[in-house]
Amino acid sequence: MAGLLYRQSYGVLFANFVVVIPVAYVMRDSVTPWMLAAWAAAIYLLTALRVGVSRAFLGRQVATSATGRWVLGFSALSWLSGLLWGLAGLAAVVSHDDMMLAFGCVMLAGMCSGAVPSLSAYPPAYAGSALGMLAPFTIACLAEGDNLHLVYAAFALCLLVVNMYFSAVTYRSLKTTVGLRYENTNLIENLQRERDRATAADNAKTRFLAAAGHDLRQPVHALGLFTDILADRAAQGHILAQDALLVAQRQQTVLEGLNRLLDGLLDVSRMDAHLTRVEPRRVSLDAMFDALCEDYAPQARARGLQLTVVPTDIELDTDPALLRRILDNLLGNALSYTPTGRVLLCARRRAGGALIQVWDTGAGIAPEAQEAIFTEFTRGAAAPGSPTAQQGLGLGLAIVRRLAGLLGYKVAVRSVLGRGSVFSVQAPVALPRASG
């Protein structure tokens, strides 16, 4: 509100410059010339100072912590200006001229009412200014004590009360207007973010479908080729059982790959459509690690790799099926992209959670590719000798990131080319069991 206070002050500052001249002209016969000149000079100097302060405030970026001092300075100058105008009202009373008394009342009414829209952005600024204007006039009228002066005193008090009320109403209106403006600004920013998010999602979906179309055409094309081979040999009338078996096995391999691709696409689509349900319960990581070790140990032995699973006593409140799919993808990738050495699965406690990690001694991932690997159909270079069926479809890490998002987990990767990678899943630890 400080900026609004300074911006709206130009109206009352303009009035201070302009109104001084007619007031001094009307009061020239009732006030000593040198006193009138001193009063007018004081008004002009103070108004010039206020203009300079306003320009200084509006022309710089004021820190939030310093705003209070600027508002207090503005208020003090407004109070002093009001008091100077109050001295003019006092001079009208002590002149003992009924016409001058009426003029002083009208002048104060105009200045006091005119300051309402300019100073109400900060009610104390207006309240002090109005009191400075009307208090000397009212007190002097009460001191005179006759009926006429008492009427003017009552009018001044009513004027103060009414203008204070209108100042409060104006302040509430300004506050509401500013609040609505910020709400509209936030709404526009939110709409822009949603538009950008929708555009990004649409672009990502387009790239996703383009890549999926390419990957779907490959196995379908391979199936067509194998079918043509069988048909050609059958037409020649000399198809051997061994040849038919070989073609059938290759078709089976292609169908398995196609099935995995379709399953992966469906998984991604379901998660993007928020159709995957999260069903949390108490899960022992040690039991899940044992099951993973049992499932992946044969694959590790077949590839000459050492699979190490570190026992743990950590328990999680999580969906066991979704967490298992995350670890399946991470372990499967680690075994596929590690030519020699070992793969390690472990979990350790961290402040407020547990850190599950899969380490490998594979080829590593270049720094510029460490974010791209989480997008659909992004593959690394598979380890030499890794079977084609185990080289992945480029969907595993995209699924990992989506599943982690559903569970409220964070997934991170650290990697050094030629030395290996570590994928980390940050998960909250389960609450301790209630003692019976």
Q: Which descriptors apply to this entry?
A:
436 residues, alpha+beta, five-stranded mixed β-sheet, rod-shaped
Q: What's a concise summary of this model?
A:
The protein is 67% helix and 10% strand. With 436 residues, it is of the alpha+beta class. The strands form 2 sheets. A 5-stranded mixed beta sheet has the order 2-4-5-7-6.
Order of helices and strands: HHHHHHHHHEHEEHEEHEE
Q: What amount of the residues lies in strands?
A: 5-15%
Number of discrete helical segments: 12
Radius of gyration, CA atoms, in whole angstroms: 41 Å
Q: How many DSSP-defined strands?
A: 7
> Biggest β-sheet: count, sense, barrel?
5 strands, mixed
N- to C-terminal distance: 58 Å
Strand order of the largest sheet: 2-4-5-7-6
Silhouette: rod-shaped
Mean pLDDT: 82
Structural class of the secondary elements? alpha+beta
Low-confidence stretches: 381-391, 431-436
User: Helix content range of the residues, please?
Assistant: 55-70%
What would you say this structure looks like, in words?
The protein is α+β, with helices and mostly antiparallel strands. The chain has twelve helices and seven strands. It has helices at 2-8, 10-26, 33-58, 67-94, 98-114, 116-119, 123-144, 147-236, 241-272, 285-302, 320-336, 396-407; strands at residues 281-284, 306-309, 315-318, 342-350, 353-360, 410-416, 420-427. Strands 2-4-5-7-6 form a five-stranded mixed sheet. A two-stranded antiparallel ribbon has the order 1-3. A hairpin with a 3-residue loop joins strand 6 and strand 7. Helix 4 (67-94) runs parallel beside helix 7, helix 5 runs parallel beside helix 8 and helix 7 (123-144) runs antiparallel to helix 8 (147-236).
